[in-house]
Amino acid sequence: MFCTTFRKFALLFAMAFSLVPLSLFAGTNGKVTGIVKDKETGDALPGVNIILDGTTMGAATNAQGEFTIINVPAGVYTLSTSMIGYTKVTKQNVRILPDFTTRVDFDLSPESLGGEEVVIVAERPLIQKDQTMTMTVTSSEEIKNLPVRGFQAAA
After folding, report:
1. Is the pTM higher than 0.85?
2. Contact 48, 67 (CB under 8 A)
3. What CATH number did the domain enclosing 86 receive?
4. Is residue 56 situated within a structural domain?
5. What is the mean pLDDT of each run of 10 residues along the chain (155 residues)?
6. Closest by CA position to 96, among listed 27, 21, 25, 24
7. Which residues neighbour 87 within 8 Å (Cβ) at sequence distance 6 or greater?
């Protein structure tokens, strides 16, 4: 009696389980990982920003130049890098598959930062209104020329 009841229960369970779509057990998100290196030296670049364009998702590389972006919805994306002193690199048509890790490595070329020359000119006022005491500036050359070399010689 127990065997037939158990068999019926097992058969009923198997039939119910077969009606559940397998896609419910499959993941919908993937992961992107990779390394960012200097193109000229091959050294890892820490602190590079990696961004999935069109989303708010991204990561920064660690001290070894590695990055990981998790929980990325499956689809096709464009990945961009940004770091001061290096050219921006973009990789298009990066396919993220559910439950898989997609590897994307970057080699960044150094970029010279150019800017205009900045000249700062300042003048010290002759009378400083916020100073309530007298102040004298003595240069090291004037101290060397003094006839006294220490406080013992002055006494």
Report:
1. no
2. yes
3. 2.60.40.1120
4. yes
5. 68 66 67 94 94 93 95 94 93 93 94 79 75 75 76 62
6. 27
7. 108, 109, 110, 111
